[in-house]
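Researcher: Structure prediction, please.
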Amino acid sequence: MTNETNLPTLTALEYIPYIDENGQLPEDLQGKIGVYAIFNQERELQFVGYSRDVYLSLRQHLVRQPQQCYWVQVETIERPSRTILENIEQAWIAENGSLPVGNGEQKAVWTQPIDVKTIMTPEEEANYQKPTNDELTQMKIIKNAARRLETEILAALELRGLKTQIRFNPKLKETGLLDLK
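Model: Predicted structure follows.
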């Protein structure tokens, strides 16, 4: 059992495939409180976080950073304790020797909904910026850009073999944000 004096190390934890041989995320983490470390294909630490539902957080990170989520290490705890979770998170970052990119300059892309406006194509951007556009026209352009990006993300995850159902929040698309429902 993890407590404030008995913190697990990353080197003591096994690497779990982000997507298993059946195309599923680690379902045994559903509803589990814990700290997780996400690694890229080369097992380089990309992000350390904690959550009241590790499984849901891993799903969010996968759609936000599909090319960086290949391995995960997890330590779960029975009862929520922000102090313990933060201590483990800090210990893992210190053990890594440097701040993972997802906990530093790229934190927003790991932890916030995808802002479609920042990744519109030049054509979408030009259409969106037309002075003759009303609010409804702009919303349609953003929604279409969100749908395009959603299709690209789902295609990339399908190539990785993901079989888990991924559903984006339709209401957020109208505001130019992509996030899971």
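Model: The chain has six helices and six strands.
Researcher: Thanks, that helps.
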